[in-house]
Give the backbone structure.
Amino acid sequence: MDTMRAAYDEVYLYTMGRPGFILQHVVDAFAVQRVNDDSKPIGLVFGLVGLYLHVEKQFSGREVQRVHMELGRRKRGWPRVCVPEDRGSMTVADVLAASAGPERDAAIDNWCRSVWTAFGANRETIIALLREYQIA
């Protein structure tokens, strides 16, 4: 197993039961940062939606989860998004290196911000998608 996946598994377990369902932010940041040719478009788009809502609109993980459920109710083609070479300066390993508790929770927020900033060229695409659903 690669080291990033192992770090993700530990952070995932850590966030289970944490306030605000921050587990959702971990899932979104990891999915977006690790996207590859085998990734499904829906995973990338949902991850970007989650990061946008969390970083720019301060949605909790639970609120992001509700938006994901709303988006998933309708079958559709998902917008094309560009995947940058640089996917953010932080990784899940940086999150895991932070002390458990408020420091690690803050590291999760910083990681989300780092990944969202790296994928910033997709901002208008994500906003347009959410407008289509009358969300945010």
Summary: The CA atoms of residues 102 and 108 lie 10 Å apart. The two ends are 38 Å apart (CA to CA).
